[in-house]
Amino acid sequence: MYAHKFSFQDSIDMYQPREFTADFNQGTYTQKDLFSSKSNKLILDSNSSQAIYQNQSKNLTVLNIAKLQLSNKDILNIKTGVGGFYKVELPDGSIVNLNSKSSLKYQANYMEDRKLTLSGEAYFEVKPLLVAKKKAPFQVQTELQTIEVLGTAFNVKTGNNNDETLLYEGRINLKNKNGILKKLFPGDLAKINEADTEVVKLNDGEMEESLAWKDGYLYYNNRTLKHILEDLQKYYDFEFNGKDVPSEYFTIYLAREKKLPELLQLLEKSGDFSMQLANNIINFKK
Length: 286
Known about the structure:
Elements: E1 3-5, E2 19-23, E3 28-32, E4 37-43, E5 52-55, E6 60-64, E7 75-79, E8 86-89, E9 95-98, E10 103-107, H1 110-113, E11 115-119, E12 121-125, E13 130-131, E14 134-135, E15 138-141, E16 145-149, E17 153-159, E18 162-169, E19 172-176, E20 181-184, E21 188-192, E22 197-201, H2 204-211, E23 217-224, H3 225-232, E24 239-240, E25 249-255, H4 260-270, E26 274-278, E27 281-285
Parallel strand pairs: 1-4, 2-7, 6-8, 11-15, 24-27
Antiparallel strand pairs: 2-3, 3-4, 5-6, 7-10, 8-9, 9-12, 10-11, 12-17, 13-14, 15-16, 16-19, 17-18, 18-21, 19-20, 21-22, 23-25, 26-27
C-alpha cells in the first residue's frame, strides 16, 4: 500500500461502473469494479482546493463532493471512524454533517435524482433546487425508511433495527417499509422499527440534546451516567461493566474535541464517584 492523494481522476473507464470508498476508519481510499479492487492510503491536508481536506480551525474533515470527477455510473461511499465528524458538501450545495461510525452512499448522477443512502447518524441541511420551475425532491434511504424533502433541515439516526428522524425546520414526508406515510413538522421525532412508526413532539431541551453533536458538543439533559458512557462509545474506544456504573443523573455539555480522560474528569467533578481508565477499560469507585 502506498500514499495516494484523494482523487477520482485515475484512468476513468466511462463504461465500467466503479465504486469508490473513502474509509476514515481504515484510513484507505478504495476503487473497486467487477474485476478488480485497488486500495491506497488516504492522506489529508489543509488545502481547501482539494476534494477532501482538513479544516483545522473547526476540527473537521470536509469532503467537497462537487469537486470529484466521477462518471454517471460510479458510486461514492464515505465511511467514518470512531470519534470522527465529517461535513459533506453535495453537488447541489446541500450539506450533510456525518457523525461518528456512519456511512453515506450516493451515485455520481446524484443531481438527476438527489438520492442518498445512510447508515448511522447524519444532520442534513437541504438546499432547495428548482428543475423546470418545480422544486426537486431530496431523498434519504435507510433500511427502515425513505425520507423525501423539498428543502429543510433534519437529523437521521439508524441502528439496532430502530431509526429516528427529527425534523428541525421545514417539512418532510416519511414512508416506512410497510408503506405507511407520515408527515413531519418542526419538532417532530419519528421512531421507526420493522413493525411501526411513532411520532412524538420534542421540547426545546430535547431538540438541543439531539442536535448538539453537529456543532461539536455532546449535551445530556438529565441522563444517567450509564446512558452517557454508552453514547460516548460512539466517539471513543473504551469498555465498561454496566452493572458497576453508579446510578447518577447529569445535565451537562461535553466538547467532542476533548480527550476521553478530560471528559471523565468533568463527570467525576459533577458526581459522587471516581473513575479509573486503564487499558481502555473504565473501573468505578464510590
